[in-house]
UniProtKB/TrEMBL annotation:
The lineage of its organism: Eukaryota, Fungi, Dikarya, Basidiomycota, Agaricomycotina. SUPFAM superfamilies: S-adenosyl-L-methionine-dependent methyltransferases. This is S-adenosyl-L-methionine-dependent methyltransferase. It comes from the Eukaryota. CDD domains: AdoMet_MTases. NCBIfam families: hemK_fam (TIGR00536).
Length: 359
């Protein structure tokens, strides 16, 4: 992959959200994921890069069993210079230089000392959790453990879905959007931001109280109300619910039929090993989906097959692991959906299955 990724070409750059690929992984193949704090330039001064390069060059490997040098001590006992050398050794000089710039900016806001921030990063805490936010489109999504961090491939297909729905809202407004496993609320909130005001009534559901609280907080930060008497604005609410429960359909009966169903569900096999930065920080309920990784798609297929769940000409968009396109396509076809498409992510991998209900 290139070191810099422009997700949607010139139009994406115009939104001011060019993502730098560093230090995070996609859930299924663990390739790098973009991250930067809001308002940060992507340019790092030569002095910072030179300092990190010098620090990395000074790092020396220690034979097994040898006494710990300052560069090999636990992060909490290391100096800032030693932490920087360790970080450069872990993720590379250029990435460490960029992260250092963001961490310095975060420290300057009085959040924590630079040394403590570096120690957290060297110890494996994801950068997004340290900085507390992740850009997602034009939104700055608040993130904190253990809620799943939004990935750029999810952002990519949400933009594309908004383009599809822009034609739909012209003929039927407002449309109802259900987001299963909403996490931070990033998908419905970006749709509410991109589509004309007054055209979206979005509802997110998650099994995690942490996720529901965070999605509600993000809605407030994005100035998207849960309910309003003003029909000229879009709305989003987050609720605690298990969409795999036999009671789920009855619990949301007042919201049915829905016009749009979205989900970035768990899709990793329970047998697949994960890097510590993901395994030790993000909610396993948002990652794993049985031995096949398809468990949640089977549940969603059963929901969609039920009469009255999806409105005529309704739209379904499901994020998938890059090897799951065909089985998920089959699940949606068995549920009676049509016009099934596979959308690829910016890296050319199958990432989203999109389908429609009958007219």
């Amino acid at each position: 992959m290139p070191s810099h990724l422009n997700l949607n070409g010139a139009s994406r750059a115009a939104r001011g959200r060019v993502h730098l690929e560093i230090a995070r992984q996609s859930r299924d193949d663990w390739t790098s994921c973009g991250v930067r704090p809001a308002g940060c330039s992507l340019h790092t001064s030569p002095a910072v890069t030179k300092a990190v390069a010098a620090a990395a060059a000074a790092a020396v490997a220690v034979p097994h069993g040898a006494p710990l040098s300052p560069s090999r001590r636990p992060p909490r006992l290391m100096t800032s210079a030693a932490l920087l050398r360790r970080l450069a050794s872990n993720i590379g000089r250029e990435e460490a230089a960029q992260e250092l710039k963001w961490l310095r900016q975060h420290a300057s806001g009085g959040h924590d000392s630079l040394q403590n921030l570096l120690a957290k990063r060297v110890a494996g805490q994801p950068l997004q959790y340290i900085l507390g936010s992740q850009p997602f489109g034009d939104l700055d999504i608040i993130v904190r453990p253990p809620v799943l961090i939004p990935r750029p491939e999810t952002e990519h297909w949400t933009f594309r879905l908004a383009d599809v729905l822009a034609h739909k809202v012209r003929s039927r407004s407002p449309i109802s959007v259900l987001d299963l496993g909403t996490g931070t609320g990033c998908i419905p909130l970006l749709l509410c931001h991109l589509l004309p005001q007054g055209t979206v009534r979005a509802h997110g559901f998650d099994i995690s109280p942490d996720a529901v609280a965070l999605a509600t907080e993000n809605a407030a930060a994005c100035k998207t109300p849960a309910v309003t008497n003003d029909r000229r604005v879009n709305t989003f609410s987050a609720s605690l619910a298990d969409f795999a429960s036999a009671r789920f359909r009855a619990e949301i009966a007042h919201l049915l039929p829905c016009d749009v169903l979205t989900s970035n569900p768990p899709y990793i096999s329970t047998s697949e090993p994960l890097p510590p930065e993901v395994r030790d920080w993000e909610d396993h309920r948002a990652l794993f989906a049985g031995s096949s990784g398809l468990q949640c798609y089977d549940v969603i297929g059963n929901l969609l097959a039920a009469p009255g769940f999806l409105a005529p000409d309704g739209v379904v968009a499901l994020e998938i692991g890059h090897t799951q396109a065909q089985p998920v396509r089959d699940i949606l076809a068995a549920a009676g959906l049509r016009d099934i498409e596979i959308w690829q992510d910016p890296w050319g991998k199958d990432r989203t299955v999109v389908a429609r209900s009958g007219a």
